[in-house]
Amino acid sequence: MKQSGLAAAALTCGTSLLTACTKRPQIEEIGLQLFTVRDDLAANAKQTLMKVANIGYGHVETFYEYAVEKATGKYWGLTTQELKQVLSDNNLKTYSGHYQLNNFLTMGKGQDDELKQQADIALALGQQYLVVPVPPMDLVDKLTLPDFQFMADQLNKGGAYCKSVGLKLGYHNHFWEFRTHGADKKTGYEILLTNTDADLVTFELDMFWAVKSGAHPLDLFEQYPKRFEMWHVKDIDKVKPEVIVGSQQDSIPSVDILNSIKFTEVGTGTIDYKAIFKQKQVAGMQHFFVEQDGIYMENHFESIRRSYHYVKENLV
Fold it and tell me: Model's pTM, two decimal places?
């Protein structure tokens, strides 16, 4: 009956409706950025992934333990193939992974060896997106507009390489991208968005950091439609809602700002996710991931369970 109904809809409204219908379940899958449970993964990766799946999450976004296993092909002691098998055993998909490209994105360097090496790992996991989670951390308080322009140029180059091997390159924001520069007060994020090719580079909008920076996701969707194929869905604790970007805040070292913010389970904070999810087609969203950089309750799995159920019952 479902098949005949879909066929009838396609005949009535054309192939575009059929495409939309077939994509819809994928968009409604609830993902988890595994950084949320990084301590649990370090302690027992297999058990952690099983618990994530048992809560109901359908896919996960990977990350490296950057200081230990970056670009080795290992995750929490598991080889790429072992991780792929554990995910399969638990019916977890992985569409995207975070891969740092420090040299590639630093002016005066720009080597693409780490890009190619990590693209191979993403492909081995069966991922579709290779996402840069952060610019080189030693530069975040020194970034200038020329740095962002260089990063945009490099992202285009990296995006072309990724496209040639069957991936798409993405960029994930924090708050420093929203700091303004120069007399015209341009932001680094504006430079990245306007100087990258939409066919080669997409953006993973971290809602928490955007809102904390004073940037409204709905305004970004309207200004840059279809550029945000992935989202990080995490919430701002009501006890610390203040914006962290501005003339006075921008002189504060980023590490101090990072230590001053507070996260909470999705649906319990200040972000109006119901309004945001209504605009997912404008944004071009294909996948989203629950994330919480810091969990304050003792049981981390209860935390991600609460976020999962809020999303499931209210947003998809």
Answer: 0.90
